[in-house]
TrEMBL record, chains A, B:
Active site positions, chain numbering: E414 (proton donor)
Swiss-Prot/TrEMBL site (Important for catalytic activity) positions: H35, H265
Entry binding sites for substrate: H35, H265, R360, S387, H464, D472, H476, R523
Enzyme class: transferase
Pfam families membership: Transket_pyr, Transketolase_C_1, Transketolase_N
GO BP annotations, alphabetical order: pentose-phosphate shunt
Keyword Ligase: no
Residues the entry annotates as binding thiamine diphosphate: H75, G124, P125, L126, G163, N192, H265, F440
Catalytic reactions on record: D-sedoheptulose 7-phosphate + D-glyceraldehyde 3-phosphate = aldehydo-D-ribose 5-phosphate + D-xylulose 5-phosphate
Any one GO molecular-function label of the UniProt entry: metal ion binding
Protein name: Transketolase
Species of provenance: Rhodosalinus halophilus
Gene Ontology CC annotations of this record: cytosol
Length: 671, 671
């Protein structure tokens, strides 16, 4: 690459972009780790985008109508941090840049959305940002349909690398975006031909342009180091009625000795290489030093949107009171006050007329009460609408032609669904929920984990939550998945036992601010177990005494979801034999763990044997069975220590010991 | 659809294919569940494929050189069962068809490879079969390169539906196959335009032909109900030097009232509908009844390959002794006898010259000793070769032009890598292992779970197994993933502490017959902890006493992997204060759980407090800490109850309490 030619062709542009490159070199050298090559390759694109097209105001990084910039190739985090610092972020200061990748800094190895405004999402696991961006773009369309283009009208810009595009999730994301004609989504493909193992040609020969075009995208190729060509491509992308992909031909680690090599992907820390590269750039400033004129120019870029934002504030103020309050409330992520009343009303009705019902059906019943009063809910399913019971009559379908619908047919794309829901939640103003089978948690795991890490209150509706789904067999029967969600930090797993617990779980899920919820719901009908109305949300305690021992308490049977009624049946048998048995319903271990110790001890006192019952693996249960510090109770667990089998559900429950009689025997064996 | 026209155009073909359709209707009706539409739609393709092209011998369903038939759209399992029954399978009998989806039958809701020969893989989770098939085709090429085309020369045929093609894993699989020019892989796309939620157009507008062509596939469209057109397309596919996709335009639930509808995807059980459909087919036979002439014809199809197989047996017999023994041994899945000696030799050398080493590097050291003596190993990495340390010098790279290499650059395709490895293992003759970062377990979870369910001894090499990876931060730092693998049935998770334990873990992984292994390996260097040579494989016991208490035993510290040396450091401090402390290394909880109780009690006796140390979540540990039945020990755990952070590894270990001093304090707090 002829750097001198680049410099002389666009000297001003060159120095501005070189600031990104130099800061990257300095930060990576100081940290002695990181990824230099991508920011060095994509600095020109980022400079043109930020200075000529992106709508933002560095003084108000939380402006709801700002453009969103998604760094899907998250390892190139210094690109983002440099942009934020240069344009005047109050949070990503020069000190933060100096502390790149150090404990407590806001400049983590990969961008973390919760560390500073302007970091729109957490990326690094490849393809996630791209799929998040589809959710951002859906959120924008949905909110625009609701509040009008004067209030919501912005673009979602993505930088994605070869890694993002090789990950399967990118296919799900791009086909979904193409289908929905998300025209305000623009993806810059950092087409540098290099991955960690070597040239892309080592592992792929895909024509990415043809691939995107095959799913209804507007595609362009551009010299990623020519600012005018980049600008023209962005203008064309904005005009296209389709989502747009711009393949930017770039040189990874531009201008360094590692240019166009796999080495250039990683940390360029050799002092001589850094010095030589800066010399090639004509960058004669010290480490972390940006000349005043360049910094001034970038800060002007950061202020470019101030006027537009002020005008927007006026337009928002001019909105009718109802709409404005709704907008503010939704952006704040607060549930409407009437949610609690609606849930209580539903619970009361359920207590008065208890009926056998699958909890997935119970979930639908709750949604039917909730969706009409929460305009922010946005439902969907990965092609299992009738099985997940996620669609209620009032939602309408969100399509390419109708953005007013609040239900999305995600197609057979569990991963993109989860990642897009993350994007909607991150965008703000939306409460996404989406369904698939619990076993297919696996397909969406990378995004579900990120919902937890990113502190986003997405709701994953996971039906068919055990062998109770029956004949579809072990491929579809989760056994380890409850444990998987429980093992994941900052995640609430709810496994409600009946309609009332399902309503309480939904109320909690819809009022969470900073963590996702997973609802584990049955395919099969289960009897009501909460027969008395309580205004209080008992699921909020995580576990509670559902039925007290009648005879002297000798045993506690703890169960969740579809096994709670089995525990009650066991109790009935045991009491008949004089064995006083308490039944504890434990719909959410995480919330129970958050209760104070005295409550936990009230629910699970010593002096009685304990048996857990759940049609899943034991892992996660021992804390409650054996006692939190050990030496507390003799215990056993009725669960699954193998994969399931294909047979009718009732046959499986009998075979694997999930009956009142079998559980009672296990209790007696401990006495 | 004009069924009468189809019938009269090819009357013989029609009746043969109708047998598949009728058996499907009968089995689904008897089970009152299942998926009728796909077998009814694809019966013509299956009939032409099986009778005119597939190389197999029903009398020898385990013939190593048979063609492989992969039903990726596994919900259409009756298509496969009908084919097996009709062609004369000794296992899939008419009784089994009658017992479709019942407990203990071989005809599970979705095909399960371990239930009967001829079921080549377990499908149902969509896209998996397709990605498995890429592995089957790689195995065929690799074995052909080794043993020659007289011994190995067969096709891999796949039926995939819209669901398979919408799943992201299909993109990873097809781009990998296109890159590798796997010309003997042929995918029939059941292009019926219907998914569970409704028409495909509800969620997708992808031009699948263009998409496959963009990645180097040969593509064709064909009327999926015209036997001659199907035949011609298959012939063209066989001639192409590229992998081939044939989009078969079919009608789901052909000829029924539910044809071309989402309802037709599921179980058609209405007696009137079944009767009307059979009438339209001109099928005048009772339930489960196949007229003798049709059954005879199908059984001839089942015998078509007998002669070819006999000729093949002669060619195999004529192979040189060395090659033949290797072929037989590899097909039997047996490790060579010299493996044990090589591992012992390596262990002895390691004990004599202990050194600080990352266990990922230890793994490379083991592979360097193992790969030259195990020609069946086939390594790879999802674009992290230098980080996963999976490539050894002797392997060579498997490419489109050179099939003799035994190392594959999978690209950034964790999911397809895992699924392709499953396919290689299922094919037989191969011992695949492949690497990525432990946190990216999530990307491959659906396939890793299936390795366990399918009982395949694949080895997943998961490096960077904790916060010890440092600056890349929480997106890359597993905390819940050890628990996830441990929660999965039939899976061995090894977390070795040093080179010797790594060698033992590899020995176990390479000698497993029916379960996968996951190796959790460090990025960071760790000191050797096994300083004395033992010929015995101690990791085989799952946990063992690494260092006995010197003073009177008051505490047991249990640790795995990179925390074992921390446990030893804690012991040193505690002993200095007179607190006798045993250190137990626990590299594999699953194997420890399989030991007899007396061994387990010897390793973890009562009468001492217990502290577990592992840089992951506590889930899974309580059984060993609290005592298997409770009431055994006071216990604590030093681990992670949150996501990690971006900082140098040593800072993180200090921050989160993984130091000898901090662990010693936790022990003392219990005394």
């Amino acid at each position: 690459m002829d750097i001198a030619a680049l410099r002389s062709a666009h000297p001003d542009h060159w120095r501005r972009a070189a600031a990104i490159r130099a800061l990257t070199l300095d930060a990576v050298a100081a940290a002695n780790s990181g990824h230099s090559g991508m920011p060095m390759g994509m600095a020109d694109v980022a400079t043109v985008l930020a200075s000529r097209h992106m709508k933002f105001d560095a003084a108000a990084p939380d402006w709801p109508d700002r453009d969103r910039f998604i760094l899907s190739a998250g390892h190139g985090s210094m690109l983002l941090y440099a942009l934020l610092y240069l344009t005047g972020s109050a949070e990503i200061t020069l000190d933060e840049i100096r502390n790149f990748r150090q404990l407590g800094s806001k400049t983590a190895g990969h961008p973390e959305n919760f560390l500073a405004q302007g970091i729109e999402t957490t990326t690094g696991p490849l393809g996630q940002g791209f799929a998040n961006a589809v959710g951002f773009a859906i959120a924008e369309e949905s909110l625009r349909a609701r509040f009008g283009p004067k209030i919501v009208d912005h673009h979602t810009w993505v930088i994605a690398g070869d890694g993002c595009l090789m990950e399967g999730v990118s296919q799900e994301a791009l086909t979904l975006a193409g289908h929905l004609k998300l025209s305000k989504l623009v993806v810059f493909f950092d087409d540098n031909g290099i991955t960690i193992d070597g040239p892309v040609s080592l592992a792929d020969r895909t024509d990415q342009m043809a691939r995107f075009a095959a799913s209804g995208w507007h595609v362009q190729t551009v010299d990623g180091h020519d600012p005018e060509a980049i600008d023209a491509a962005i203008r064309a992308a904005k005009e296209s009625p389709l989502p747009s992909m711009i393949a930017c031909k770039t040189h990874i680690a531009l201008g360094s000795a590692a240019q166009d090599t796999a080495k250039g992907h990683g940390a360029l820390t050799d002092p001589q290489l850094v010095a030589d590269t800066k010399a090639a750039y004509g960058w004669e400033h010290g480490p972390f030093e940006v000349p005043a004129d360049v910094k001034d120019w970038w800060e002007q870029v950061g202020r470019r949107g101030a006027e537009a934002r002020a005008a927007w504030e006026s337009r928002l103020a001019a909105l009718g009171k109802g709409k404005r309050e709704e907008f503010d409330r939704r952006i704040a992520g607060e549930a409407p006050k009437k949610l609690g009343g609606a849930i209580r009303k539903l619970k009361k009705a359920a207590a008065e007329a208890p009926e056998k019902m699958a909890t997935r059906k119970a979930s639908e019943t709750v949604l039917a009460a909730v969706n009409p009063i929460l305009p922010e809910t946005f439902g969907g399913s990965a092609d299992l609408t009738g099985s997940n019971n996620t669609r209620t009559g009032d939602l309408g379908v969100f399509t390419a032609d109708d953005r007013s619908g609040r239900y999305l047919h995600y197609g057979i794309r569990e991963h993109a669904m989860a990642a897009a829901m993350n994007g909607m939640a991150l965008h703000g103003g939306m409460r996404p929920y989406g369904g698939t089978f619990m076993a297919f948690t696996d397909y969406a795991r990378p995004a579900i984990r990120l919902a937890a890490l990113m502190q986003q209150p997405v709701v994953f509706v996971m039906t068919h939550d055990s062998i109770g789904l029956g004949e579809d067999g072990p491929t579809h029967q989760p056994v380890e998945h409850l444990a998987i969600h429980r093992a994941t930090p900052n995640t609430l797993l709810f496994r409600p036992a009946d309609l009332i617990e399902t309503a309480e779980a939904w109320e909690l899920a819809l009022t969470q601010g900073d963590r996702p919820s997973v609802l584990a719901l049955t395919r099969q009908g289960v009897p009501a177990v909460r027969l008395k109305h309580s205004a209080q949300n008992l699921v909020a305690r995580g576990a509670y005494v559902l039925a007290e021992a009648e005879a002297k308490r000798q045993a506690i049977v703890i169960a969740s979801g579809s096994e709670v009624h089995v525990a009650l049946a066991a109790k009935e048998r045991l009491e008949a034999e004089g064995v006083g048995t308490r039944v504890v319903s434990m719909p959410c271990m995480e919330l129970f763990a958050e209760q104070d110790e005295s409550y936990r001890r009230r629910v699970l006192p010593g002096g009685a044997v304990r048996v857990g019952v759940e049609a899943g693996v034991r892992q996660g249960w021992d804390r409650w069975l054996l006692g939190e510090r050990g030496r507390e109770a003799k215990a056993d667990f009725v669960g699954m220590d193998r994969f399931g089998a294909s047979a009718p559900a009732e046959v499986l429950f009998e075979t694997f010991g999930f009956t009142g009689a079998a559980v009672a025997e296990r209790v007696k064996a401990l006495l």
